[in-house]
Amino acid sequence: MEVKHWSLPNGATCIVVEMKGTTLTCIDFWCKGGSIYELKEEEGMAHFLEHMIFKGSKNLKEGEFDLKIESLGGSSNAATGLDDVHYHVLVPPEKTEEGLKLILELLLFPKIEQDAFDMEKEVVLEEIAQNIDQTD
């Protein structure tokens, strides 16, 4: 297994690992921005923004990203950790370029509408409350 890595002019690190015989390609974007970077009055903000990214973009309506990824035979998800937030798509290898274009559209041109903001705020607050109730 060969690992290739390089840095872009903006400082982003790119890593490519080709694994022969796999049926899916994983495109994964990791961002330095988890909960450890939040101030006390900002708790939950990284997780909230992770959710908001999936609410559409300049060129994609809410829900359209998921439909397009699924039509490629893929799936998507995201997670917020202590020191990172990451977004990924899994697509068949021949659909890598299309999957990359879609995830870049979502990440680089998010559209945050007030209605989606208000609704998602409640969802994240409920997730935080559930987390507090389950200390393990």
Secondary-structure topology with pairs:
Layout: E1 2-7, E2 13-18, E3 25-31, H1 45-53, H2 64-71, E4 75-80, E5 85-91, H3 96-108, H4 114-133
Topology order in helix (H) and strand (E) letters: EEEHHEEHH
Number of strands: 5
CATH fold description: Cytochrome Bc1 Complex, Chain A, domain 1
How many H/I helices? 4
Helix content: 25-40%
User: Which structural class is indicated by helix and strand composition?
Assistant: alpha+beta
Major sheet size, sense and barrel closure: 3 strands, antiparallel
Q: Name the CATH architecture.
A: 2-Layer Sandwich
How does this structure look, described?
This protein has four helices and five strands. The strands form two sheets. It has a three-stranded antiparallel sheet, covered by helices on one side. Strands 1-2 form a two-stranded antiparallel sheet. Helix 1 packs across helix 4. The radius of gyration is 16 Å and the shape is globular. The model has no long low-confidence stretch (mean pLDDT 90).
Q: Summary?
A:
The protein has helices at residues 45-53, 64-71, 96-108, 114-133, and strands spanning 2-7, 13-18, 25-31, 75-80, 85-91.
Descriptive labels:
24% strand; 4 helices; Cytochrome Bc1 Complex, Chain A, domain 1; 5 strands; three-stranded antiparallel sheet; two-stranded antiparallel ribbon
